[in-house]
Design a protein that fits this description.
Length: 110
Amino acid sequence: AILDRDEKNIMHNAEAAIRQWAADGMDLYLGGHIHFPFMQPLSSRYPGLAHDAWTAQCGTTFSTRIRNKMPNSFNRICVGETRNETKLERWEYDYGMRRFKLEERVLPWL
């Protein structure tokens, strides 16, 4: 969880599950219940993972009921020829331009 108030939304036994999935080769954990978009390595919460796994949480994409004063957003996964070429992107709605624009791009496995 990025926001302190979302700690209660962390699933029971999350650490054990993440550690096992990472050991089994999981690259990316997708989520969205908290409506707060972010992308980060899971090792920032769970140091010492057996595999370099990331999380990508999406925000609210197509609703007028936004949370946390965050604009509508979505994540895009651009799968490359190799793992190192895969990109994660977060797109946010720009109300002035009336369109989504690229807000963040990461190449997590470089």
